[in-house]
TrEMBL record:
SUPFAM superfamilies, per database record: P-loop containing nucleoside triphosphate hydrolases (SSF52540)
Disordered: region residues: 388-424
Location of the protein in the cell: Cytoplasm
Every RecF/RecN/SMC N-terminal domain range: 3-362
Upper lineage: Bacteria, Bacillati, Actinomycetota, Actinomycetes, Micrococcales
Keywords, comma-separated and alphabetical: ATP-binding, Cytoplasm, DNA damage, DNA repair, DNA replication, DNA-binding, Nucleotide-binding, SOS response
Official protein name in the record: DNA replication and repair protein RecF
Summary of the function given for this chain in its UniProt record: The RecF protein is involved in DNA metabolism; it is required for DNA replication and normal SOS inducibility. RecF binds preferentially to single-stranded, linear DNA. It also seems to bind ATP.
Encoding gene (name): recF
Naturally occurring in which organism (per UniProt): Gulosibacter molinativorax
Compositional bias segments (type: Low complexity): 399-409
Length: 424
């Protein structure tokens, strides 16, 4: 799938913008602070309903305005559709698909993107919540209903924590224990589904991660990943403040997960009353990334962490390509190449070959390998200056034309020579 046209109204620093796009590589070029990232942020928002830069949607609305509009026209083979969302500073966002109103949370099922930005370094070095969010967002891409499961789990967790906090300062009554049991049943039911889905996703993602890292660094550093699941941890590990769980590198059955989750929750009940919070469940799980058999979060250098995070996003793009009904995701690389050395830039250019549409932002065109210098879109002060073929592409076109002219001249000369021979 690819975007054929993007329309923005009052989004970030764009009062109004209309941009035609085609398949293949497109480069958004301009000095920092002009609005390059805002364009790709808008496209990515349509597939995730969240920004990779800010936590509040209100920051996406142009200063002084009440709402912003993002609209994209999409193509997947012969199929055409449009999706748009109105982001409001107050109230609920509104969405439409081909002119028909839909719930905003349904948009991701129609359109997929995979975005890599400098902020994604936090996937390796940041907090567990960021890694859980990455996994859950990818889950929703493959199975949109899981977004509802996760939302319901968060609702149950909130209610259960409220009960535990209120019990912290009181004597625990039989009625309170009965209510807790009701929340336990729902927490286990929803949490088991989330844990099983996460484990299955990590299993499918793992070979793509190893392959992508190998392709990017040209060395087998054993890049892999496992899940740390609090519902599968022993009682001692549940005492850890960081929510450490059992390292799982293979799939378990749903029934095995449910049984262990139930036992761990029962074991933790006394401590939960003491602390006033839920100590077991998907909200305390984490993903561990491994490099050369060691945790990447602790041992990877800045360059290794950058390459690992980029490889993780390339792996996600490959998985979406394999499993999505809408074909390739739109691959977005926001200010990536400037952080890579020359060899890894070339390897990244090779790795993204074949994706239906790749959108790249850069401040300096020379940071990109020349083979990517196809079509550039110049951005200046929230204005799309225009699209033009790069000098490299122009030279290729001129060389091609010159070759065709030379070949035509040779053919004409041969034909004239044959005619002369017949005359003689």
């Amino acid at each position: 799938m690819h975007v054929t046209h993007l329309t923005l109204r009052n989004f970030r620093n764009y009062a109004s913008a209309d941009l035609d796009l085609a398949p293949g590589v497109r480069i958004f070029e301009g000095v920092n602070g002009q609005g390059k990232t805002n364009l790709v942020e808008a496209i990515a928002y349509l597939s995730s309903l969240r920004s990779h830069r800010v936590s509040s949607d209100s920051a996406l609305v142009k200063f002084g305005e009440d709402a912003a509009i993002i609209r994209a026209e999409l193509a997947h083979g012969p199929r055409r559709l449009s999706i748009d969302v109105e982001i409001t500073k107050s109230g609920s966002n509104k969405a439409r698909v081909s002119g028909h109103p839909v719930k905003a949370r349904e948009l991701p099922r129609y359109f997929n993107t995979v975005l890599f930005a400098p902020e994604d370094l936090a996937l390796i070095r940041g907090e567990p919540q960021q890694r859980r969010s990455f996994i859950d967002s990818l889950l929703a891409t493959h199975a949109p209903r899981l977004a509802d499961v996760i939302a319901n789990y968060e609702r149950v967790l909130k209610q259960r924590n409220s009960l535990l906090r209120s019990a912290k300062s009181r004597t625990v009554s039989d009625a309170m224990l009965g209510t807790l049991e009701v929340w336990n049943d729902q927490l286990i039911m929803l949490g088991t589904e989330i844990i099983a889905a996460r484990l299955a996703l990590v299993t499918r993602l793992r070979p793509h991660l190893a392959k992508s890292y190998m392709a990017l660094v040209d060395a087998d550093h054993g890049a892999t990943m496992t899940m740390r699941v609090s519902a599968l941890a022993d009682a001692k590990k549940l005492m850890d403040e960081d929510g450490a769980g059992g390292e799982i590198d293979s799939e378990l059955t749903v029934e095995e997960i449910r049984e262990q989750f139930t036992l761990r929750l029962k074991d933790a009940q006394a401590r939960e009353f003491e602390r006033g919070t839920t100590l077991v469940g998907p909200h305390r799980d984490d993903v561990t990334f491994w490099l050369n058999g060691l945790p990447a979060r602790i041992t990877a250098s800045q360059g290794e962490s950058w390459s690992f995070a980029l490889s993780l996003k390339l792996a996600a793009a490959q998985l979406v390509r394999e499993e999505s009904r809408t074909g390739d995701p739109v691959l977005i690389l926001d200010d990536v190449f400037s952080e890579l050395d020359g060899q890894r830039r070339s390897r990244l250019a090779t790795a993204i070959e074949g994706f239906e549409q790749v959108l790249i932002t850069c401040a300096v065109l020379e940071d990109l390998p020349e083979e990517l210098w196809t079509r550039t879109i110049r951005i200046s002060a929230g204005t799309i200056v225009g699209e033009q073929a790069s000098s490299h592409a122009v030279r290729e076109s001129q060389d091609s034309q010159a070759g065709q002219d030379s070949q035509a001249a040779e053919v004409a000369d041969d034909a004239q020579g044959e005619a002369d021979d017949r005359t003689k």
